[in-house]
Amino acid sequence: MRDFAVPQNQRAAARQQQSPAPTKDEAPVKEAENSTEQDQEKEKRPSVIRRHPIAALLIVLALIALAAIGYVVWLIYFHPYETTDDAFVDARSFSVAAKISGYVSDVPVSDNQHVDAGTVIAKIDPRDYQIALDQARGEVDVAKAAISSAEAQIAAAAAAIDEAKAQLTSAEAALQYAKDENNRQQQLVKSGAGSEQAAQQAASTLRQNEASTAQAKASVTSAIKNKAAAEAQRESAVANLHQAEAQVETAEQNLSYTTITAAQPGRVVKLSGAKGQYIQAGQAVSMFVPDEIWVTANFKETQLTDMRPGQPVDVTIDAYPDHALRGRVDSVQPGSGTAFSLLPAENATGNYVKVTQRVPVKIVIDNWPQDVAIGPGMSVVPTVTVRPRN
Hints:
- By secondary structure, this protein is of the alpha+beta class.
- The chain has helices at residues 2-5, 8-18, 27-44, 48-51, 53-77, 127-191, 196-256, and strands at 81-83, 87-91, 94-97, 102-106, 114-115, 120-124, 259-261, 266-269, 278-279, 284-290, 293-300, 312-317, 324-332, 358-365, 380-385.
- It is built from seven helices and 15 strands.
- InterPro entries: AaeA-lik-b-barrel, MdtA-like_BSH, MdtA-like_HH, MFP.
């Protein structure tokens, strides 16, 4: 019992002291026996976990705690959101162009200036177009005078018709009397009671009255035709009046086009028009960025599973990271970006390689900051809350 209580290493040292020094042949055998004993001692030695059970338990608990914390962090700060750095500020920018040709007389705005709807951006010399308007108005007066003249001719023709009809009535009455008188004279001559001269006179009067009646009928026909001609002249004058009025309207429009104004509020960008410059119709004098801007975010199609319109969005502008913006998802484009590009992909040709597509998502911002300049093309980072936070 006493020897058993002595540690093994001390007993091994005592045996080495008591035993005689080995010879050259016995040395390898002793070393092999010692190594075997050491291996057996290592096999009998307990593991680190058995030697330090409390520390091992604490390490396991720490790993579990770290995993739980990581899961909670992922669940709170990563799982509910979808974000992308392929996003930018977008707007329906357009060019402000002249509708007519002429020399620029004034440019009352400057580059990057904010203007309201109706603000004058540029003016074109209006003198040539004012002359054209005055000339068109003169044509209107001429057409109105022609109408008045034609109406007077129509009235005169109507009076001439009445006069000719009256003369025709008188001629017909005289003709009827001449016929009756001629019949009486012819009967008197046959009965021997009348003279031959009186019969001849009655026949001559009848022929004269017949000619007068024919002349009266021709006068009525001529008066009617004159009235028709006057009415045709009036219609022509009315058509000329409409044409002249259209020319006046065109001239007024061209004169109004000499003043180029902003159709909506926004900013004047890339102002190219200058005083004294001659510009052609359709030539741009500046670019215009409306106040209505939004964010276009190109999300991967795998990020759209839970994305719906109306979900809240946090937006950070790369140029102004200190301005945190809030917005919402307005709409998701029904198709990938490449489907509406100038040269869309043709997957049916060549070797097909599946690539995750990106889909534009329109995001509207509640309130854009007013103390900084924000325009199309500026990079932003939107973060959409697509799932409820646990």
